[in-house]
Amino acid sequence: MFLIIANGQAKQSKRHSKDNIIITNLNSLDRKPKFPGGDEAFYKFLGKNLKWPFHGDIDVQGRVLISFVVEKDGSLTNFKVEKKLWPELDAEALRVLKKSPKWIPGKQNGKLVRVRYTVPINFTIND
After folding, report:
1. What is the pLDDT of residues 97-119, one digit of tens each?
2. Three-state SS annotation for 72-108
3. How is the chain split into domains, by residue range?
């Protein structure tokens, strides 16, 4: 059994893509992107979908940091492992986040915007 803890955060700058700005400062938003149903629903989604990828006694614990862009339509794109832990755990965190339903997109100045969002996922073994 393992414990999952995830919190959203963003970097403190703006980055340009080909035709749209990607907002990376959550404090500049009128509405931050969020998982439908909020944090509690997100934790339930992670708990239901994350699988421990190891068999036997593997004592690997820690945090994987995954960033992605919440698009204007709420879809998630541009996934990146920002902080790696163990290849199997990194891949599992990515796999599950790619299965995520559409999020409620962020707004800035009343308009939907693309937002880079970072989620830490902690893998902890419970005895």
Report:
1. 999 999 999 999 999 999 999 99
2. CCCCEEEEEEEECCCHHHHHHHHHHHHCCCCCECEEE
3. 2-125
CATH code for the part of the protein at 2-125: 3.30.1150
**Tokens (6 digits) for 34:** 């969020």
Q: For the chain, how big is the Rg over CA atoms in Å?
A: 15
- The model's pLDDT over 51-98, given as tens digits with 9 standing for 90+, comes to 877 666 677 788 999 999 999 999 999 999 999 999 999 999 999 999
User: Cα dist. 33→52, 59, 89, 99 in Å?
Assistant: 28, 34, 25, 17
This prediction's pTM: 0.81
DSSP state of 40: H
Whole-number Å distance between alpha carbons of 61 and 85: 8
Residue 26 sits at φ, ψ, to 5 deg, of -60, -25
